[in-house]
Write a structure and sequence with these properties.
single chain, 114 residues, Arc Repressor Mutant, subunit A
Length: 114
């Protein structure tokens, strides 16, 4: 049985990193500023800062500073962007699949009309 809330979190091993990657990878056109990102995702600022620094060091995320604010955007030119995007999509689909109730089975005999 899985201990994490979702498949992607199990694979990445860090809840905050997972949440950030999901948001940034699935919205590549977005460029949220740091506080907006943290508040919108319900994550702590110190943990988010550490994870974003890691993702920036890996080249997966770009940071731009403007007028005292930091804006973050996924690097769609990174060699891992498309595989990560596909992994996020697949993990979401898998999580939805395993959360669905099992189809009911009918007991009794099949009766044809007529």
């Amino acid at each position: 049985m899985r201990s994490a809330d979702n498949t992607l979190e199990c694979l990445l091993g860090a809840r905050t990193r997972t949440i950030l990657l999901e948001r940034l990878v699935m919205h590549p056109e977005g460029r949220p500023w740091f506080r907006e990102l943290c508040r919108g995702l319900g994550i702590g600022m110190s943990g988010a800062h550490d994870e974003l620094d890691l993702l920036i060091d890996l080249g997966l995320v770009n940071r731009e500073r403007e007028a005292g604010a930091c804006f973050y955007q996924v690097n769609t030119d990174h060699v891992l962007y498309e595989p990560l995007r596909l992994l996020v999509i697949a993990a979401r689909a898998y999580d939805e699949y395993i959360e669905r109730p099992a189809p009911s089975t009918r007991t009794g005999r099949y009766r044809a009309n007529g």
